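Posting for a labmate who doesn't have an account.
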Amino acid sequence: MADAPSSPDRPLPSGPLDALTDVAGLRVGHAQRVGDGHLTGTTVVLAPEGGALAAVDVRGGGPGTRETDALDPRNLVQRVEAVVLTGGSAFGLDAASGVVAWLEEQGRGFRVGPDPAQVVPVVPAAALFDLGRGGAWRARPDAALGRAAVEAAARTAVGSPVPQGNVGAGTGAVAGGLKGGIGTASLLLPSGITVAALAAVNAAGSVVDPRTGLLYGEYGDGAYADQTDGDGRPDRDRGPVDAAVLDRARQRLAQARAESEQRSAASVRTPLNTTLAVVATDATLSRAQAQKLAGTAHDGLARAVRPVHLLTDGDTVFTLATGTRPLASQEAVSDPAFGAHAEAGALNDVLAAGADALTRAVVRAVRAAETVRTPGGVFPSYRELYGR
């Protein structure tokens, strides 16, 4: 029999780190540039040697991506060695070149010849818009920054915590005028399967309900009442913000937006953003199942950001499946009467957890972010404005 799915009155626990690195074998590295006109960075998710099965679902109207077609289940490449999330819009995709070069030096990639050095690393990447936020329009990630990020990932031990907030691809991220950033979370299914997410939150829409001051991702049925945001406080079930604090926060956010528009680098008046995410699991998935996971994970993004998937967003979710745990027990799958149902039920649990983990990752990104003031703008943090 398959394990029973989670329910609102039986929430899923997080993994030991409450991070993407709870999926064994995955490592995360950040590199960023701040100051002298810079406010941008790159994040690399490094798979175990031999790679991980990968998929992608792009739903924003203005995506900046690289190698996403390679992840189509109909195409040749089955596994990838790394995924790159980067600032710099289309220019920042150059960061992936530095990751490709590093992987080639390690002999990691798609084998194309008899010599072990004859590999072509396939590195899917997606970029968010943070141009000019540090003050200089041409200050953006490049191949050197991508190499620095993948080297940072390679230096970390497997199972290491993941820095959150103003790091990596989240360095110049902004969400509805508030400072965005990197956030991560994980959930442990009763079957022992881990599902985790990492998000670079940079949305044209808002992450905050203007009526209450609560983060949209904190609403719901209480499924995360036992989860915390890293400081021991629960992610959900917090009361509305005091009316005076709420009014003051609205005023300060409006002032920050007005000041940002007046600064020299704020030459782009239309909000151009993009939230990027990697959702990972140690379950054994087919490529079609992995693509389904990437698609349903967008539901978690839609719970946390409103509106979402706009023409001025490039919202993109990658999936990585390391395949170290069976999706359903061999006993259940081998039973002709229940095998298909058992596998479908087990996959449903993974799909639901992927969306939930991404919602939590967005919340944790916004809560970890810190206020930034640069020649390119003023980007206050949620904690500064709302005091929580």
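Reply:
Got it, the structure tokens are right above this. The chain is about 25% helix and 20% strand.
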